[in-house]
Amino acid sequence: MLSAMAVIAYGFERIHLHKVQICTKTINKPSMRVIEKCGFTYEGTLRDYFFTDGAYIGRLYFSMLRSEYERTKA
């Protein structure tokens, strides 16, 4: 999780992004936990986005705004 936070900080502090987005497959529970622990907000799911091993899998989207990031630093 520390490396994820370092990438987020780089995006906001060095590149001056307004928003950072991240996505993962609906079946990737470990990634979802890291995303949530980092403070991202769930935005939505693209249903049946991937076709893997004979089944469709959705894609979850999360984001963090600069204002949300700055609140976590305080």
Describe the structure.
- The protein is α+β, with helices and mostly antiparallel strands and 74 residues long.
- It has helices at 2-14, 29-37, 66-73, and strands spanning 19-25, 41-52, 55-65.
- It contains 3 helices and 3 strands, in the order αβαββα.
- A 3-stranded antiparallel beta sheet has the order 1-3-2.
- β2 (41-52) and β3 (55-65) form a beta hairpin.
Which key features would you list for this structure?
single chain, about 70 residues, alpha+beta, Aminopeptidase, 3-stranded antiparallel beta sheet, elongated
Short overview:
It is built from three helices and three strands. It is 41% helix and 41% strand.
Outline the fold blueprint.
Elements: H1 2-14, E1 19-25, H2 29-37, E2 41-52, E3 55-65, H3 66-73
Antiparallel strand pairs: 1-3, 2-3
Residues in helix, %: 40-55%
Largest sheet: 3 strands, antiparallel
Number of strands: 3
Any idea what the shape is?
Answer: elongated
CATH architecture call: 3-Layer(aba) Sandwich
Integer tally of domains: 1
Structural class: alpha+beta
Q: Spell the H/E element sequence.
A: HEHEEH
Mean pLDDT, as a whole number? 95
What is the CATH class? Alpha Beta
Number of helical elements: 3
Q: Rg from C-alpha positions?
A: 14 Å
Q: What is the CATH superfamily?
A: Gcn5-related N-acetyltransferase (GNAT)
- Biggest sheet, spatial arrangement of strands: 1-3-2
Report strand %: 35-45%
What is the straight-line distance between the termini?
Answer: 19 Å
CATH fold description: Aminopeptidase
